[in-house]
Structures are given as C-alpha cells and as structure tokens.
Specification:
The protein is of the alpha/beta class and about 80 residues long. It is about 30% helix and about 25% strand. Bound molecules: S-adenosylmethionine. The site of S-adenosylmethionine (SAM) has 13 residues, from loops.
C-alpha cells in the first residue's frame, strides 16, 4: 500500500531535503528516493546494529520519547 502512495505522491518526496522514516525498517523511501537524505528510525533491536551509507542512516530509539528532526517525518 505504501509503495503505491510513494509512486502517486512522488512530488511530495521530490521536494524534500530530508525525511525520517519512523518504523521504516524496509527502507522503502530510501529505495525510491536515493537522492533524499533518509533516516530510518526504529527500535534498537531492529536498527541498532545497522550501518548507514550515503544518504541513508539508521537511528535507534523510541518514537514515544523523541524522533530526529527532518523536513518531514513519515509514520507507519
Ligand atoms: C509494521 S512495522 C512497519 C513496517 C514498514 N511499513 C516498512 O515496511 O517499512 C512497524 C515498525 O515500527 C517499529 N516500532 C514499533 N514501536 C516503535 C517505537 N516505539 N519506536 C520506534 N519504532 C517502533 C517496529 O520495530 C517496526 O519496525
């Protein structure tokens, strides 16, 4: 479903400089928009050992406590 939304709403993402993909373990936004600085924010047990590369980085945490800043935050 979100894959369809990404394709239908490309203009939204194409006008952003950065995004935080909350609970975005599948990295869908980064795969569709590799030019966009994308932070995948998820629980420590999911992303704690993952290394970023280029425009993709991983941040571990609890969305109920704080979420990194960006031009936009996408919540699942
Ligand atoms: C159903 S998955 C979403 C998958 C997403 N649609 C994708 O494929 O990119 C929900 C995600 O939210 C994360 N999550 C759940 N509670 C969270 C919290 N309190 N803080 C951060 N991430 C959380 C889970 O670890 C999981 O990866």
């Amino acid at each position: 479903m979100f894959k369809i939304a990404l394709k239908e709403c490309r203009h939204v993402f194409e006008n952003l400089g950065s995004v935080v993909d909350v609970g975005g373990v599948s990295k869908l936004i980064h795969q569709e928009f590799p030019q966009l600085k994308c932070t995948v924010f998820d629980q420590p047990e999911i992303v704690g050992n993952l290394k970023g590369d280029g425009n993709l980085n991983f941040v571990a945490g609890d969305m109920f406590k704080s979420i990194p800043s960006a031009d936009a935050r996408k919540m699942n």
